[in-house]
Amino acid sequence: xxxxxxxxxxxxxxxxxxxxxxxxxxxxxxxxxxxxxxxxxxxxxxxxxxxxxxxxxxxxxxxxxxxxxxxxxxxxxxxxxxxxxxxxxxxxxxxxxxxxxxxxxxxxxxxxxxxxxxxxxxxxxxxxxxxxxxxxxxxxxxxxxxxxxxxxxxxxxxxxxxxxxxxxxxxxxxxxxxxxxxxxxxxxxxxxxxxxxxxxxxxxxxxxxxxxxxxxxxxxxxxxxxxxxxxxxxxxxxxxxxxxxxxxxxxxxxxxxxxxxxxxxxxxxxxxxxxxxxxxxxxxxxxx
Length: 288
Ligand SMILES: [Mg+2]
What we know:
Layout: E1 15-16, E2 21-22, E3 29-36, E4 41-47, E5 53-56, E6 60-61, E7 63-64, E8 73-75, E9 77-80, H1 90-100, H2 104-116, H3 124-128, H4 134-143, H5 159-168, E10 172-177, H6 181-189, E11 196-199, H7 200-203, H8 210-219, E12 227-231, H9 234-243, E13 247-251, H10 254-260, H11 264-269, E14 272-274, E15 284-286
Parallel strand pairs: 8-15, 9-10, 9-12, 10-11, 12-13, 13-14
Antiparallel strand pairs: 1-3, 2-6, 3-4, 4-5, 7-14
The structure holds magnesium ion.
């Protein structure tokens, strides 16, 4: 029997999803079914005492799509995107809003609208300052002592433990994202437990261009299907990495991760959709 509050389906598209498993070991609640729509993923559970339906949005772990049917996939390498995958971009977007003199909330809302229209993030600036030159302004920020900061405070709490655990388990671990050469230096200064770090600024090619993922296949050991690319972005990470033959993990966090976790192109091209990097080490194991 499906536990669902009155009116839960009104105005929303619901469908039962297969392949979801609960992480709760809580014997006071019983998983009844799973539902998803374009904006969120959750499980309805029935309270054991009252029977009342309870919505639990974060009890979904590692939804494996049809592309990865094995219990644990054997791979050689795991390569990570940077923004909203390893780093929380909140402060950096806030600094951009400050730099151009608009309220942070206004900047974020317009950024969301630009994303929803399918446009590149950089177009956000054009709404506030037509003709905005991102490269020049980034340099101006640095010259003014207000450049990007990448430190331990920007790392998501699950980032360093995940990288370390993958290394302990014998996987080659890399970082490759759309960042400047300066950001690459800042990332290296974090002394993360990884084998290599590279950025689009260093490679001269950026996501989602196929050339970026061709570089990833040379950057990381293994055949393309033995390399996992982990990211939060449908168009920059999951779809093009899949097209290059890589395994893909969509991390459901940050604006894009939440927005697109159930988007059909993501469901079709992501091997896994996860809520936390803590879930990742148990999904893959190294070639022995
Ligand atoms: Mg990202």
